[in-house]
Structure formats: structure tokens, C-alpha cells
Amino acid sequence: MTAIGLSDVTVHYGRTEALSRFSLDVAVGETVALLGPSGSGKSTALKAVAGFLRPTSGTIRLDGRDVTALPPHRRGVGVVVQQYALFPHMKVAENVAFGLAGIPRAQRKERVAEVLAMVGMSAYAARRPRELSGGQQQRVAIARALANRPRVLLLDEPLSALDAALRADMLGELQRLKRELPETAILYVTHDQGEALALADRIAVMKDARLVDEAATAELYHRPPSAFTASFLGAANLIPGSIVDGRVAVGDGAGYVCVRPHAVGVAAPGSGLAATVTGVQWRGATYRVTLALSDVEAEVRADVASLDGLPGVGEPASVVLPATGLTVVPRD
Ligand SMILES: Nc1ncnc2c1ncn2[C@@H]1O[C@H](COP(=O)(O)OP(=O)(O)OP(=O)(O)O)[C@@H](O)[C@H]1O
């Protein structure tokens, strides 16, 4: 069953087309990440679902009901944006209770306690936002969005204001929350591929106001349909060529052979594609070796566990591609 449906939605800001005939469905209980570079229209799509803006054309449905003309407060969705936007003069509990005006007092208290527990903030109910860390404020914002028990949760870059360590913690929290809310559909806007891979069941990649590609998360990562998605969804080597009889024919055809750095091997000359080592970077758990292919203009990155026995920078080497798991994407 479809919880969120956008069909053919176009949004203009003045003469700027920020969203162009965008269609996407999110099923009940499903998490879909909208992933794309800055300005690609992700937030615009989310705002259209939230009701913060009115599309020029197209239809938005929630649980099958056309809500295109409804104001935000009548859509029954929970929204969390980048800057937590808590009311500074209200205590945490009051902030969370804010959207529960129509509910009897006793029940309201219970609901606030329930969602604060859910985000691990029960002990902070009497504090004011300024007495909380950024991560704690964001937890409160999430609790507030959950207070009405929405069937749809819209998260717009909820972790981007946090530092890296806190972001990793909160990502774990969101994964747990998702397990606790198996019926809730989540639309998650991010430009961070790591967040999308960790949280989303499905990813919709956007570019220039349009949907570029959309598929189950692992499918999109392992078999990206386009060079843009391959590169945006993590480091990808794009080697001009094709696959003929299961072997890579470099320089052949109109596509790129796409392979992730962790799947590429490096060896002494003579056992793979001829190349020269152009750089080595230690990354802690692995080394990233960059190589220039000899037969075609392309740089290849390989992540290897050890440099033992491998050619050094400036020396000839071989790039060893895996026998399986290679995909070919069209050149953009
Ligand atoms: N209020 C506005 N008025 C005019 N143009 C806007 C407005 N908001 C966004 N835009 C433009 O619409 C386009 C899409 O913006 P949007 O915020 O949806 O992108 P985004 O993918 O969410 O980007 P980011 O990751 O930077 O938040 C951009 O070209 C942007 O400059």
C-alpha cells in the first residue's frame, strides 16, 4: 500500500523550475532516501509533501487521499528539518506537546513521555533547548514530529548540523527508531550517500529538478543504471569499455565499466590491465592506490589492505578487475 505518492509534480519558484514532473511512491513502512547534489530539488519535493508549498501541477497523495490542496496541519505528517527549530522559550516537554492541542491533557502527557523515551530524552523534559547539545535538540525535534503518531515522517537533512561523531550516533538512533516504527513511511532527504545507504530501503537519485534513477538501495549501489548515480553513490571507477564474453574490453563500445575501488586489485605488470601507479594514500584500514591505465585515458582507484610486493609510485603495474559483479553504464 502506498503511503506517499507524488505524481508528475512540478514546482516553480518564480521562473525557476525547482521540481520537474517528479513522480515517486513510498510504501507503508518503507524508507526512501532522496539523494542528490545541492540544488537538485530534494527539499522542494519534501516541502511539497509536507504542504509548505503548492505545486504548479501534479498530485500529492497520502494513504491514497489527494492532499494537494490541504494545508500542512491537515496532512497528518511529521516533519523534521535541518535546523531543529524548537521554540527557545518552551521546555522540552512543551515543545513536544506543541502539536497535540486537540488531545486531552492526561493523554497528552502520556504521549510526550512516550516519544521522549523513544528518542532517549526522558531525563531532559524540563530543560530548555539552549541547555541541550545539537544532537539532543535534534532528538527533541524528532520526538515532536512523532508525537502525533504520524504515518508519514519527513526528514530533511536531519543530521547535517551535527559533527561527524554525533552524526554517526544519530544514524544508529534513526535505524533503531525505524525498527520501532515498522508502519511509518519515511522520506529522507540527504546529500550524504552514507546516510542513504545506511537508512534507506530504496533510493531516488535527483539531479537538476528531476528524478535520475530509483531502485532498492543495494541494487542501485551494485548495479547503478547511470554514470551519475554510480559516482554519486560512492567512489566508482568508470573505465571506458565494455564487457565481451565476460571479459573487460577496454576502450570498446559506448559505455563505462563501473567497478568500486574495494573490488579492484593491484599487481605486478603482466597480470591484468597495464597501468602505472600514480599515487598511494594511507587511509587507516586500507591504502588507496591510484593508477593510470596505459591503453585508455582513465584513472583507476584501488583500495588494498597491504602494499607488500606492489609496485611503487611511478612504477608499472597491473589493474586486476574482478571476474564478476562488473556493470556497464552508458556514458552521460
Ligand atoms: N524559496 C525559494 N525561492 C527561489 N528559489 C528557490 C527557493 N528554494 C529553492 N529554490 C531553488 O530551487 C532549486 C531546488 O532547491 P532545493 O532546496 O529543493 O534543492 P536541494 O536539492 O534540497 O538542495 P540542498 O541540498 O542544497 O538543500 C534550487 O535551484 C534553488 O536555488
Give the CA-based shape: elongated
What hetero molecules are in the model?
A: adenosine-5'-triphosphate
Which structural class do you get from the secondary structure elements?
alpha+beta
Give the overall pLDDT as a whole number: 92
- The H/E string reads EEEHEEEHHHEHEHEEHHEEEEEEEEE
Rg estimate, integer Å: 24 Å
Number of helical elements: 8
The largest β sheet comes out as: 6 strands, mixed
Query: Which stretches of 5+ consecutive residues score pLDDT under 50?
Result: none
Percentage of helical residues? 10-25%
Number of strands: 19
State the end-to-end CA separation: 35 Å
Strand content: 35-45%
In which order are the strands of the major sheet placed? 6-7-8-3-9-10
Which descriptors would you attach to this protein?
alpha+beta; single chain; binds adenosine-5'-triphosphate; AAA+_ATPase; ABC-type quaternary amine transporter; ATP hydrolysis activity; 332 residues; five-stranded antiparallel β-sheet; 35% strand; elongated; transport
Q: What does the secondary structure layout of this molecule look like, with pairings?
A:
Elements: E1 2-13, E2 16-27, E3 31-35, H1 42-50, E4 57-62, E5 65-66, E6 77-80, H2 92-97, H3 105-118, H4 134-146, E7 152-156, H5 164-180, E8 185-190, H6 193-199, E9 202-207, E10 210-216, H7 217-222, H8 227-232, E11 237-244, E12 247-250, E13 255-259, E14 265-267, E15 273-282, E16 287-293, E17 299-304, E18 316-320, E19 327-330
Parallel strand pairs: 3-8, 3-9, 6-7, 7-8
Antiparallel strand pairs: 1-2, 1-4, 4-5, 9-10, 11-12, 11-13, 13-19, 14-18, 15-16, 15-18, 16-17
Helix pairs in contact: 3-4
The chain binds adenosine-5'-triphosphate.
Adenosine-5'-triphosphate binds next to strand 2 and helix 1.
Enzyme class: translocase
GO molecular function: ABC-type quaternary ammonium compound transporting activity; ATP binding; ATP hydrolysis activity
Keywords: ATP-binding, Nucleotide-binding, Transport
